[in-house]
Design goal:
Blueprint (H helix, E strand, L loop, with lengths): L2 H4 L13 H17 L1 E4 L5 H12 L11 E2 L24 E2 L3 E3 L9 H7 L1 H11 L4 E2 L7 E6 L5 E4 L6 E7 L3 E2 L2 E4 L10 H8 L7 E3 L6 E4 L5 E4 L2 E2 L4 E6 L1 E2 L8 H8 L2 H10 L1
Antiparallel strand pairs: 1-12, 2-3, 4-6, 5-16, 6-15, 7-13, 8-12, 8-15, 9-14, 10-11, 10-13
Helix pairs in contact: 2-5
């Protein structure tokens, strides 16, 4: 399938970003990112494309690995809490329930539409225009493209992401729950703002925003600076979401320890077989 049949280019002109329409489009996204720390593009893919993506994702669910069941908000930054280990109420030491499985990138076939979308130069050019710096595909064999699977009871705890912008595509919404909640720009590079993070973990919700996303929505999100979670899923329909890994570093790859933690011992076996 051609990329023009995957992306809704009539609604989102990724193929003509130098036009007046394209410049206005990018400007509106930058404004939303600056103000809200996020931007959502509904109907980014057509219904027919999305349904095919769901069918292809469902065929891979059996390979999804559950990963850790309890983690702190800083689980992508393993060393940040070392100096606070004696304080079990400190945000770095507070663990929340995580109930989801992930399909790693190496298990997603090149013929799948999600893979083709992720690999399209239109996506890296588009994101580069938004960030105003060159953007590259993540080079990690396992972490570059993931499918997150949440069945009934599934959820993701309050946390920060490692990357400076997270790109996701909701493939399928559950019957109930699975709402994306976040607190925009709660921390900066200069200030972790632990007191505010603590208040959110304690249930203070005045700054919490909610996005009840529709299937087919592409989300751009400053997850490194904005605390966020997914509320518990209910019903028989699972929540399926793709995480598309892009980075402003040309050769970025995640740690092997993180891949083993999130995708299972088969990763260690694969790496050992390669090394051997």
């Amino acid at each position: 399938m051609k990329i023009a049949e995957i992306i809704n280019l009539e609604r989102y002109p990724l193929n003509k970003l130098d036009s007046n329409e394209g410049v206005e489009f990018i400007g509106s996204i930058r404004e939303s990112m600056q103000h809200d720390g996020s931007c959502t593009l509904d109907q980014f893919v057509s219904d027919a494309t999305r349904l095919e993506m769901v069918e292809q994702a469902d065929s891979l669910v059996e390979f999804a690995f559950p990963g850790p069941s309890e983690v702190s908000p800083y689980f992508f930054n393993y060393r940040i809490g070392e100096q606070y280990k004696s304080d079990d109420r400190h945000p770095t030491q507070r663990k929340g329930r995580r109930n989801l499985s992930q399909v790693a990138a190496d298990l997603i076939p090149p013929e799948h539409l999600l893979y083709q979308l992720y690999r399209s130069p239109l996506m890296t050019d588009f994101l580069g225009r938004v960030l105003q710096v060159p953007v590259y595909r993540n080079q990690d064999r396992y972490q570059s493209l993931n499918i997150s699977v949440m069945d009934s009871g599934g959820c993701q705890q309050w946390h920060f992401d490692g990357g400076n912008m997270v790109t996701t595509l909701l493939l399928q919404a559950p019957e109930a729950g699975g709402v994306f909640e976040y607190v925009p720009n709660i921390r900066t590079d200069e200030n972790e703002n632990f007191d505010m993070v603590r208040s959110v973990l304690d249930g203070e919700s005045s700054r919490v925003k909610s996005l009840n996303l529709k299937p087919g929505t592409l989300s751009l999100f400053r997850g490194h600076y904005s605390l966020h979670r997914v509320t518990e899923v209910a019903g028989l329909v699972r929540r399926l979401q793709a995480i598309l890994g892009y980075n402003t570093q040309p050769n970025f790859a995640g740690s092997l320890d993180s891949s083993i933690l999130h995708y299972g011992p088969r990763i260690a076996d694969l790496e050992n077989s390669v090394a051997g």
